[in-house]
Amino acid sequence: TVGNGESYYANALFNYSLAFLFVNSGNGDLTGLVFGDRYNGGISAVASIQSENFAVARFVYDSHFILPATTLSSSATVSANELGGEKITELAAEAHTSIKTLTVDGRNLIVYASNTNSNQILLTFFDLNSGELVTKKYLGSTNPVKVAALIQTTDEGLAVLAQTMVAGRFKRNALYKIPKEQILELED
Q: Is the distance from CB of 34 to CB of 72 less than 8 angstroms?
């Protein structure tokens, strides 16, 4: 929900295009819209930070952009292309992106996880309050990996579920556990 629960948001097909919709939680009426570029662009991942502040990942064709701190009005209609963002050229064309908010030793962070051209997972950590880049970390080296999900662990670490290919043809699950001490070390 957005704000005090007055709106819900969701990705959907709307008017022959990918779109990020805001709907009134009381009556289901459309209140706001971030429209994509037909099926070639739109919002690929989002995390609500506070009220109308979001962490967003968007794409246009094979280009990927991240916006760790942006405002999306639940009552406006805008194009996803107008949002801008930092272009991340190392991401694979069909990269899946996940966003998660974390609290590590009282510090609020946003982590973006996505797939790179070199078949690794890129974790990009940002400060939740300022949107400033904190650090980056790569997972995977020998076998190709693709991100599936993120979750913060009870000890304030991060667990990353991934898919890997063994010998280039056998799909397997992979689980990476990053303890909070390693997340904090990444800041140095």
A: yes
Whether the per-residue pLDDT at 17 is higher than 80: the answer is yes
Which residues have a Cβ under 8 Å from the Cβ of 174 and sit 6 or more positions away?
Answer: 140, 145, 161, 162, 163, 164
Residue type, 88: I
Neighbouring CB atoms inside 10 A of 5's CB total: 9
The answer to whether the CB of 126 falls within 8 A of the CB of 110 is yes
pTM of the model: 0.89
Instruction: Give the CATH number of domain 1-87; options: 2.70.50, 2.40.10, 2.60.40, 2.30.30.
Output: 2.40.10
- The DSSP secondary-structure symbol of 83 reads G
> CATH 2.40.10 spans which residues of the chain?
1-87
Pick from 148, 157, 153: which is nearest to 125 by CA?
A: 157
- Write the CB contacts of 164 (distance below 8 Å, at least 6 apart in sequence): 140, 143, 144, 145, 146, 171, 172, 173, 174
